Amino acid sequence: MIYPIVVYGAQVLREKAQPIAPDYPEVKKLIEDMFLTLDEAEGVGLAAPQIGKSIRLFIVDCTPWGEEHPELADFRRAFINPEIYEMSEETKLYEEGCLSLPGLHESVRRSLAIRMRYLDEDFQPHDEEFVGLPAWVIQHEYDHLEGTVFTDRLSPLRRNLIKSKLLNLAKGRYRCTYKTK
């Protein structure tokens, strides 16, 4: 099932998502459907709040960058109840977009490397370091679980400059090629 993607202005994007337990109903099917939704929207990451579910789950698919970065050719993962507990002091500006903010792209400063604990789709624990593009996408999706969107990370001046674009999104004035709600 392909889910419609929740657009900026929806309350679920501002809520801190709740942890999920191994008995969460059909979590593997949900993850599969999230990947279908992500593929349809041609994105690289999708958090459960973006499909209206306030739970601590997101997926990342870095395979579109696989040709340019061979180490990412099979980087397609689900992250359940993630916890970023370490971030490098070294940062970089990345041009970001978001499926929940269609048509909006801004440069956001993020850590180049992170350490994170999480559960996979089988609820097996992992503790890993992520560097470069995966770290960037993971931080963006992790923010969604905290009720943060990437525009919150912009300077007050830059946020003020895009205020009318954000208002238009919240009022439903946007165009995109995937299903939204």
UniProtKB/TrEMBL annotation:
Enzyme superclass (EC): hydrolase
Pfam family, one: Pep_deformylase
EC number of this enzyme: 3.5.1.88
Gene3D superfamilies: Peptide deformylase
Cofactor binding annotation: Binds 1 Fe(2+) ion.
One GO-annotated biological process of the protein: translation
Molecular functions (GO terms): metal ion binding; peptide deformylase activity
Keywords recorded for this protein, A-Z: Hydrolase, Iron, Metal-binding, Protein biosynthesis
Catalytic activity line of the entry: N-terminal N-formyl-L-methionyl-[peptide] + H2O = N-terminal L-methionyl-[peptide] + formate
Alphabetized NCBIfam families for the sequence: pept_deformyl, PRK00150.1-3
Family statement: Belongs to the polypeptide deformylase family.
Protein name (database record): Peptide deformylase
Species this chain originates from: Candidatus Alistipes avicola
